[in-house]
Specification:
Blueprint: E1 5-13, H1 22-44, H2 49-62, E2 82-88, E3 93-100, H3 106-116, E4 121-123, H4 125-134, H5 147-159, E5 182-187, E6 193-199, E7 220-222, E8 227-233, H6 235-240, H7 243-252, H8 258-271, E9 276-282, E10 287-288, E11 295-301, E12 307-310
Parallel strand pairs: 3-4
Antiparallel strand pairs: 1-5, 1-11, 2-3, 2-6, 5-6, 7-8, 8-9, 9-10, 11-12
Helix pairs in contact: 1-2, 2-3, 7-8
The structure holds aspartic acid.
Length: about 325
Amino acid sequence: MSRCRLVIHGGAGVIDRASLTAEREAEFRRALHAIAADAYARLQTGATAIDVVENAVMALEDFPLFNAGHGAVLNADGVAELDASIMDGATRAAGAIAAARTPRNPIQLARAVMDRTEHVLLAGAGTDRLAAELGLPQVGPDYYVTAERAEQQRLAARLGKVTLDHDAVFNAPSPSDKTGTVGAVARDAHGHLAAATSTGGMTNKRVGRCGDTPIIGAGTWADDATCAVSATGHGEYFIRSALAYDVHARIAYGAQLLMDAGRAALARVQSLGGTGGLIAIDAGGNIAMPYNSEGMYRAWVGSDGAVNVAIYAN
Ligand code: ASP
């Protein structure tokens, strides 16, 4: 039986069923299905978990309805600042970028920080300089901006709010405003685990604000001995809970099962007032996708090799 496993997410949040039209929902489902199917096929033909999560997150970044790369949410100045991180469970090598303004694919630059520098986390202007030095694709600020994102930021600014992308509390004008951060976790044919996460953060965030996504141990974690985790939700609470590392620690030190560890770690986020979710795969190939919001865009391939897609609980 194949050891390959895969889970991807497109963010968790208050996904208002009433405003998600059938066509728009189908569009999300098609994208999640296609990206998961492609990633799983790569795993099946021998690609490493680290390459597969990078590649899947690049595809999610390129899809404009998710809050990462093209279509990322905008900060208080109306500018996209991107956060991303990646971790290899085989070596615990990790790379991350925060508040980057020019990488076409933020996760690719995070991978370059991991593979091609002696650092783990680069922020701000240094990220753009590294991308230029390495010749990685860079774009102008307009590349990230969609009309819906600009409207969403203006609305949040008018209301004086900093909002989760998928948060419906400020009556987001369209369903696409309720999709979020993206991430992927995988186990490859050799049993190695990896995780990757990428985001524009929160709408109308302060310039320079960094969420959980670029913080190894908060938004992303991978260790072959335990699990790979990618999180989505209100980042400040995930940082204060060391969410991704907490899932790992519960397995490593508490011998908890993946699902119990995921739920308990998320409960700690919730106890601070934070909402969101996570996707995870453990060393045994088990999958967990708990969330405490109304829904989470997700797709997964378990032991039967079938691609599943879901948004709500059912
Ligand atoms: N976790 C992200 C952040 O706080 C937002 C999200 O998941 O949508 O930056």
